[in-house]
Amino acid sequence: MKDIHIGIIGGGLMGREMASAFARWCALTDVTARPVLTAVADLNPATLAWFDCIPSCVQKTTDYKELLANPLIDVVYVAVPHNLHEKLYLDVLAAGKDLFAEKPFGIDLDSARRIVAETKASGRFVRCSSEMPFFPGAQRAFEIARKGTIGRVLEVVSGFHHSSDLDPTKAANWKRLNATCGEGGVLNDLGMHACHLPVRLGWKPTRLFAQLQKGYAQRPDGKGGQTVCDTWDNALLHTWTTVAGDAVPLRLEMKRLAPGATNTWFIEILGTQGGVRYSTAEPKTLWLFERDKEQWWKRTELGFGTPFKTVTGGIFEPGFPDVIQQMWAAYLMEREGLLDGRFGCATPEEALATHEIFAAALESQRVGTVVTL
Ligand SMILES: NC(=O)c1ccc[n+]([C@@H]2O[C@H](COP(=O)([O-])OP(=O)(O)OC[C@H]3O[C@@H](n4cnc5c(N)ncnc54)[C@H](O)[C@@H]3O)[C@@H](O)[C@H]2O)c1
User: Fold this and answer.
1) How are beta strands 371-372 and 205-214 bridged, if at all?
2) What are all long-range contacts of 317-321, with beta carbons under 8 Å and residues at least 24 apart?
3) How far does the centroid of ligand 1 lie from the alpha carbon of residue 123, in Å?
4) Residues lining ligand 1, judged by CB closer than 6 Å?
5) In this predicted model, what pLDDT tens digit does every residue of 277-327 receive, in sequence order?
6) What are the pLDDT digits (tens) for 149-191?
7) What is the pLDDT of residues 62-110, one digit of tens each?
8) Sign, CA torsion 308/309/311/316
């Protein structure tokens, strides 16, 4: 087992999620690389204190440049507000480290272009976080689509819904402000999740019409006052893509105001001969459409069929921490040149493609018409 020394910049929600996935690495049985959390940087000393529970994490600093100067660190994972992505990603590359970036890959399309250019120039190994395709059900949907056994593809829907913004009394955070989340708002926040599999399948939108909605214009600021919230909260992108030469409707849905939903990622691909439907709302359940003289929707209960094998029983059900760990396994094994045909993390080019979609969506909303990509 080869130890890979990791530094985390941004020890908030996602920084800690990643750290806990590393701490449970013994669950994986067919990997030859192991992440060793060595350093963390965060502006908040109280956040840094949480990392005391990880013995290998010996460097804790409020200055991320100290982490980048640490010669032990091989890979840096960055999970900070979106307005800081470009600066920090480029600093990571300039320090000669490999990068695992959080989505979005920069705050907007121009920023993504600059990061991709610098990634290429640096020669470093760079991938972008997107864990939902590592669910066994998502993997099955991807394989079915890739094999092309469902006949002519008729329609594709891919999306990500939650309802975190429904409660008007919830305090605003940086994700509700254009200045820190980016003009894309929910596109920046959830867009990679909705776009990753269609983009990996080569199903990029060619034309697009966007319906973007805002939520509450003001929220509590957490200090007794109110603050302005100006981001787009919901996005419905009605697009055309091309599958095997045919024009196919592809709908991309990203919602922070989806009543009843909590972190629900889903995909549905319908064809003339078959189809597949999967949602993390029912994480074990895969629906397969088949057609003969009669037509069937077959319901299968999936087990723990993750791309990287684990000690977990084959009939047990996977969850969010599991797919985060699978994504890291993919990152580290691809970095070692040992992915061996398994599903890899989102590439810089794929991340750039998502930004092209977001920019077209913003343009469509602005002009009120269909935009060609
Ligand atoms: N892949 C996913 O499923 C997923 C889920 C949630 C968030 N995210 C992404 O992760 C990133 C972080 O989101 P989060 O929810 O963890 O945010 P968060 O607010 O919980 O954490 C961000 C952390 O960054 C720290 N920070 C801010 N400026 C810093 C600086 N200059 N140096 C060091 N630390 C700094 C903050 O103190 C905070 O602890 C975003 O890009 C977000 O889109 C991804």
Assistant:
1) antiparallel
2) 317/283, 317/284, 318/135, 318/136, 318/283, 319/283, 320/17, 320/131, 320/263, 321/17, 321/20, 321/21, 321/24
3) 26
4) 9-14, 41-44, 47, 64, 79-82, 84, 102-103, 129, 131, 189
5) 999 999 999 999 999 999 999 999 999 999 999 999 999 999 999 999 999
6) 999 999 999 999 999 999 999 999 999 999 999 999 999 999 9
7) 999 999 999 999 999 999 999 999 999 999 999 999 999 999 999 999 9
8) positive
Q: Which atom of ligand 1 is nearest to the CA of 78?
A: 11
Query: What is the 78 CA–ligand 1 centroid distance (Å)?
Result: 8
Residue type present at position 336: E
Ligand 1 centre to CA of 174 (Å) is 9
Name the amino acid, one letter, at 268.
E
Closest ligand 1 atom to residue 320 Cα is 3
Angle at 184 (CA atoms; ends 322, 199), nearest 5 degrees:
55
- Asked if residue 33 lies in contact with residue 335, where contact means CB atoms within 8 angstroms, the answer is yes
